Amino acid sequence: MFDSPPTYVDAHLADYFLHEMIASFSEAAAHSLQKAVKAKISYQTQRRQQTASSVDPRLSVDEAMAGQSVGPLQPDIDEAHRMRMDAAGYKVGWALAERITKDKPRFPRANQQSTTVTLPDPLELIKFVCKDVWMAMYNKQADNLRTNHKGIYVIQDHSYRPFLRISVPVGYEKELDKACRRIVAFPLAVIRGALTNLGLHCVVSVEIALPQCTFQIRTLAPAVSTLPTTTASTVAGTSQITR
């Protein structure tokens, strides 16, 4: 009897959760940056009070800060939000890869003639993302997978589920692009976290053409150990270690 693939989270619930997470991370990023800016201005004001260079030492910190802009810049908020989404997605991808693969056989190994370390075949790992990871997250498989067999892989989802519930009024196309960029920050990190857990280091980028979403994965060369090689040789009856 055919066993349906396991579903860890209801797909619609994941969509709602993603939007709530975006809003929560945005508020947290803005609040954190605002506290940092206020603390910096407060410190600078106290220093000026101590040196009595440009601020009357009789003024309080709040009076000295009056009229100064204490709000963080929007690019800083966007970057802080992206970092939070990236960290969350990476952890989810890492854990998801462990959960899905724990009862699966090992991935086929790549044919590598120049190294003694055998790594999983990158193509098999990308297929795992297209099938198993996509099924666990969106209750469907990715629509298309392409590769140039030189370390570049392209995953296409013609009707990316999180994009199906997003819309803005006419004339707010820039806001739509910004919202989409915030959404894809999470799956970008999920893909990277899952592949890193399986031994494939990569850089993931995205192209958006609503409702299609295209993820490009560029694999990185495996890290080569920089530890010095140690050999033992016998010289005049003594054991000598050379590095």
TrEMBL record:
Give Gene Ontology CC terms. cis-Golgi network; trans-Golgi network; TRAPP complex
Example GO biological process term?
Answer: endoplasmic reticulum to Golgi vesicle-mediated transport
Superkingdom in the source lineage: Eukaryota
The residues forming the signal peptide are none
Known SUPFAM superfamilies for this protein? Ligand-binding domain in the NO signalling and Golgi transport
Pfam families, sorted: TRAPP (PF04051)
Q: What PANTHER family does this protein's entry cite? A: GEO08327P1, TRAFFICKING PROTEIN PARTICLE COMPLEX SUBUNIT 6B
Please report which protein family the annotation says this sequence is part of: Belongs to the TRAPP small subunits family. BET3 subfamily.
Q: What is this protein called?
A: Trafficking protein particle complex subunit 6B
Which species does this protein come from?
A: Austropuccinia psidii MF-1
